[in-house]
Amino acid sequence: MISEFNKEKILSELADDNKKALEKVFNYYYPRLYNFSKSFLKLEEGIDDILQEVFIKIWQNRKTIKTSESFNAYIFTITRNLLLNELRSRFNNQKIKDAILKASLAEEYVSFEKLDYLELKGKIEEIIGELPPKQKEIFKLSRTEGLSHKEIAEKMNISTKTVEYHITQSINILKAKLEAYGLISLLYFYLFF
């Protein structure tokens, strides 16, 4: 396991173009990122390609990594953003969309073939449209554009706590309204597209 002291040293070596340091980062983080990605995507297909891109980005940005304290958040944010991009691209592939949806639905719910996706999407868009303007903008920046809380805060000149509050409120409103329609299990599916 990489201790904070060793992590600091490894990141310093990485900034000095040491490829062995990248290998150490890879060996430590790959299993954690793989499990995170698998739970996020609900499918294993494509995870290796995404993680390869994560480590390419780490190597490309090695000179700008400042401290080991924020490195965990940094590497998981890169992974999350790439996973969101992958989910969006998969969403356009009907076969993969069916597999993800079926994996995320409980057995007691109706099958995807019987689900009118356009009606569901319309209902969700309607609920989002009813959110207060600031909350709606923050939610869309997060879920549609895939911006991090920090990026949204900087863009809107507000605190990250305010961003977190508005996203939590938006999800709670969506959850309550979808629950009333018996569609609560689809909330998770939608939030990442």
Brief rundown of the structure:
With 193 residues, the chain is mainly α.
Structure, explained:
This protein is mostly helical. It has 2 domains: 4-91, RNA polymerase sigma factor, region 2, helix turn helix motif (Rna Polymerase Sigma Factor, Chain: A, Orthogonal Bundle), CATH 1.10.1740.10; 107-191, Arc Repressor Mutant, subunit A (Orthogonal Bundle), CATH 1.10.10.10. It contains 10 helices and no strands. The chain has helices at 4-15, 19-41, 47-60, 71-91, 94-104, 117-129, 133-143, 149-156, 160-180, 186-191. α2 packs antiparallel against α3 (47-60). The longest helix has 23 residues, at 19-41. The two termini are 34 Å apart.
| Oligomeric status | single chain
H/E element string?
HHHHHHHHHH
* CATH fold description of the largest domain: Rna Polymerase Sigma Factor, Chain: A
- Radius of gyration over alpha carbons? 19 Å
- Percentage of β-strand residues: under 5%
Q: How many helix segments?
A: 10
What are the low-pLDDT stretches, counting only 5+ consecutive residues below 50? Answer: 106-115, 188-193
Number of domains: 2
Gross morphology: globular
